[in-house]
Specification:
about 250 residues; Conserved hypothetical protein from pyrococcus furiosus pfu- 392566-001, ParB domain; 3 domains; four-stranded mixed β-sheet; three-stranded mixed β-sheet; about 40% helix; globular
């Protein structure tokens, strides 16, 4: 991630005001606040292990991520993966192949980086043995890229159930969604789907979210809409909930 500055100071606001804290100021911002005193465009790329090494001498339990706009980078998949492993441990094998007396990772390099960052020294691996480079490449693609589309409604139901037990910020730390996306998926279940049951009066200029005539139940139409508009499903639903035109 791109880091503007790292320093050790006293927290001057919030619930931990007066406590020694480590401040990690990240670069980049999409806010352009007139009062900002940070040159957030400047910074250098640092890996998480490099950041950890730099803050290690500081004697504090608290880290303050600031910016810039830190959430632009803290939603990074690598950060989420590390926090996921920190929470749940290893739940999937690293796939390797044998190269003489050494081993090469076929699938799992990102997880391996997280294991190293968390100083996990023993991990479970599946060894394909001595296979060719081409075989390894095929296995990597097959195990990385074979995906099944989620049932959006069932996913939203699951997310809403989780929000009743877990804090939004906690969920967004380890799940592949931001707080806003989690809120929008939860709101999906409160949407008035019945308004689309009678589609006879819908036209291309209808000022509701969807502008297409359909002849099946709305809950079964997401696949069709996704193809029709060539739009990511989550993006489509987000526009739907917000009442924007497609």
């Amino acid at each position: 991630m791109k880091v503007n500055d790292i320093f050790y100071s006293i927290q001057g606001e919030g619930g931990r005001s007066g406590e020694a804290s480590i401040f990690i100021r990240l670069s980049d911002c999409n806010r352009n606040c007139w009062f900002c005193d940070t040159d957030w465009e400047k910074g250098k790329e640092m890996t998480l292990p490099e950041i950890l090494k730099q803050i290690k001498p500081y004697k504090s339990r608290w880290i303050v991520w600031t910016g810039g706009e830190p959430t632009l980078q803290l939603t990074n998949e690598a950060v989420k993966l590390t926090e996921n492993i920190r929470r749940n441990g290893q739940v999937e094998n690293i796939i390797i192949r044998q190269l003489g007396d050494k081993f090469e990772v076929v699938n799992g390099n990102h997880r391996l980086d997280s294991f190293r960052e968390l100083k996990i020294k023993e991990v479970m691996c599946y060894n394909f043995g001595e296979i060719t480079q081409e075989q390894a490449m095929r296995i990597a693609i097959e195990t990385n890229e074979t995906r099944f589309k989620s049932n959006t409604i069932k996913l939203a139901e699951t997310i809403k159930q989780l929000t009743e037990q877990f804090n939004m910020d906690d969920l967004s730390t380890t799940m592949p969604y931001s707080v806003t996306e989690i809120e929008e998926m939860s709101a999906l279940l409160d949407f008035d789907w019945e308004q689309f049951e009678n589609t006879e009066d819908l036209t291309e200029t209808t000022e509701i979210v969807l502008s297409v005539k359909l002849h099946i139940k709305v809950k079964e139409r997401l696949d069709q809409l996704e193809k029709t508009y060539e739009m990511d499903r989550h993006h489509l639903i987000t526009k739907w909930i917000k009442g924007e035109k497609i």
